[in-house]
Specification:
The chain has about 70 residues and is mainly α. It is about 90% helix and about 0% strand. The chain is built from three helices and no strands. Helix 1 packs across helix 3. About 5% of the residues are buried.
Amino acid sequence: MKPSLALKLEQLVERYQELGQLLAEKEVIQDNARFRDLSKEYAHIEPVAEMFESYQKLKMDIEATEALV
């Protein structure tokens, strides 16, 4: 994977985590428009963020297995 693509995906995962935290805040929950907008963004990036997190975990598992061999 190109470093530039990995960097963009890491930033996307960071935004995904940030959105999850924002959606749990009382102020955001009370602001229906903001909550709706953040929820849409969260739902939009969720599949990519979760797949990249899975990719990173599998990559670490492969590296650990190779180190044992």
